[in-house]
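thread: overnight batch results

M.L. [08:02]
morning all. the overnight job finished for the chain we discussed friday. pasting input first so we're all looking at the same thing
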Amino acid sequence: MTNLLQDKKYLKEQYCNGSNLGDRIQLHQRFSTNKYGWMPWVFDQYDLPTDCRILEIGCGTGLLWHDNIQRLPRSWNLILSDFSEGMVKQSRTTLGQRDHSFLYLNSDAQAIPFPGEEFDAVIANHMLYHIDNNKHILAEIGRLLTDVGFAYASTPSMKNLRQLVDVAVDFSDKLEFSNDIIRGFNLENGKEVLSESFDVAERFIYRNDIIVRNSEPLLFYLASIYEGEQLDFYVSKFDEFRKYVDTVIESTGEIRINNRNALFKFGKK
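M.L. [08:03]
and the structure it wrote out:
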């Protein structure tokens, strides 16, 4: 991997759209202080009947179900959907041929092609903040839920990754990035947002830090975030920045990054 990091051409091509989800997930999986993983913890919070029809909106790579495959009741009817056709294909690959039956759907989350009151549970992990019109997608979730069904939606804290931002900005203010993308739905305001349309039953908080003692995983993570001119600058300064991060770690021993996430459970009023 070191050779790949030194290859700026590879670096730029690999992350040209700033959306390499795999490297973001890897950072959390490899360096989290909470050894009870995120996916098992999320699954723990689901309170669902044995016979259950479930829709996941924004299934990503299918890791939620892959990491909990032994815990899935065979009677569950699972439909995994995503706006990205590539993500749907990746979910198929991740889950492969299983004893459990999964159906896959490439669909806009704001116009799911199912009749009303079709699902006992709707799951939307780390995706509601991607939708400009929260009210529209929440109305769609409400339409799809049965009267006694519940939806579950996870989201990060606005304070997440602040230490990582600080390291990047200390090197150059051109590497500033923010959590503005989650401003519309996050750990801090999620209950308020949801309560306009639903009864919010509970908020669960997953507490975790990420501790990194070498620069390589941070470099890849940042490369997955930057895009356009900012990515061009990052690539042009890559060797200098790597040396800077190495110096920071040598002086402090580690970089500790706050990482708090919440899961909300909500249902019809």
